[in-house]
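ARCHIVE CARD
CATEGORY: sequence design from structure
SOURCE FIELD: tokenized fold
FIELD CONTENT:
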């Protein structure tokens, strides 16, 4: 092919790519050690009601929740997708402990409890209240190698005088429930560093991922610190004639995943924001739909599964998830 024809074809492809209705494959930017530039963001399936809480399983499958449909859904190693549990009580986030043996531990936003469950058995409620008061909306959860569970509970937007404040909790491996913090405006995503000496919590209405130091047994320090500053979405454009919104836009920070190197991957309103183990921003992966939660799973834990707004995506990475039962 001659040079002139090459230029013509390139120009034609560029024109086609910019025409309405011509689908373009979503790809990643280059993030050193994480993803190569142009890595496809593979859509596995969409059309669910409310995708949340992915977690890897022992057999190489991946589970996630469709909480509005009251289901936990399974992605098999061969890529087939099917319901795993129906009528979950509003399962939102999932994790696994070293003793799970096919079980998952879930936050149930409908029934307002933390429960262990697997197909064909009755669920086991692990926590349902604090100081005699029911949780608001158990949200996200993570498990340590020691079997400690850490979860967030967030009062509904606009709730007046909730029985309990929005909070972060620890349920120890011996079953003791401890309240860690009540001074995070809207605690949401939660994750552990690979060495499990740091606990990360996303503040949906703020601009920081905060961090708690943990001792070697998983005990939590009394105070948290700002760890990673999130990129915020641009301010919303008000309708004609309406006043401009006041205050700083919220990050929309939701689920968090970590890789084996201690990097953080945070689902936010602008995409999956990636941070180094020291909190330095590395880049953002923009998806076709706003992400809500994510986990490393699949063969070698080397794929990042991202869910949100009824869709499930998979991204091949240059890194992998930490070596533990959950995520």
């Amino acid at each position: 092919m001659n040079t002139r024809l090459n230029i013509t074809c390139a120009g034609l492809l560029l024109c086609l790519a910019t025409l309405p209705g011509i689908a373009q494959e979503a790809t990643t930017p280059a993030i050193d050690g994480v993803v190569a530039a142009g890595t496809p963001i593979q859509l596995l399936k969409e059309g669910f009601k409310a995708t949340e809480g992915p977690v890897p399983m022992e057999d190489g499958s991946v589970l996630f929740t469709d909480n509005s449909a009251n289901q936990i859904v399974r992605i098999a190693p061969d890529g087939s997708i099917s319901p795993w549990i129906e009528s979950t009580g509003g399962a939102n986030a999932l994790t696994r402990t070293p003793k799970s043996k096919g079980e998952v531990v879930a936050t149930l936003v409908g029934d307002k409890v933390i429960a262990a469950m697997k197909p064909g058995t009755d669920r086991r409620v692990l926590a349902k209240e604090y100081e005699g008061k029911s949780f608001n909306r158990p949200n996200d959860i993570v498990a340590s190698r020691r079997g400690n569970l850490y979860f967030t509970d967030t009062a509904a937007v606009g709730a007046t005088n909730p029985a309990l404040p929005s909070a972060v909790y620890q349920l120890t491996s011996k079953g003791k429930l401890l309240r860690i913090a009540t001074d995070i405006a809207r605690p949401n995503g939660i994750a552990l560093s690979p060495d499990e000496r740091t606990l990360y919590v996303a503040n949906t209405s703020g601009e920081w991922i905060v961090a708690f130091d943990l001792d070697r047994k998983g005990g939590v320090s009394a105070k948290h610190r700002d760890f990673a500053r999130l990129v915020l979405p641009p301010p919303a454009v008000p309708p004609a004639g309406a006043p401009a919104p006041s205050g700083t836009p919220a990050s929309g920070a939701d689920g968090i995943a970590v890789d084996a190197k201690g990097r953080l991957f945070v689902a936010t309103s602008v995409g999956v924001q990636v941070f180094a183990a020291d909190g330095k921003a590395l880049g953002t992966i923009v998806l076709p739909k706003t992400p809500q939660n994510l986990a490393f799973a699949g063969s070698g834990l080397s794929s990042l599964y991202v869910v949100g707004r009824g869709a499930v995506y998979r991204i091949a990475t240059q890194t992998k998830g930490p070596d533990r039962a959950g995520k």
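CARD ANNOTATION: The CA atoms of residues 105 and 243 lie 45 Å apart. The chain has one helix and 26 strands.
SHELF: design records, drawer C
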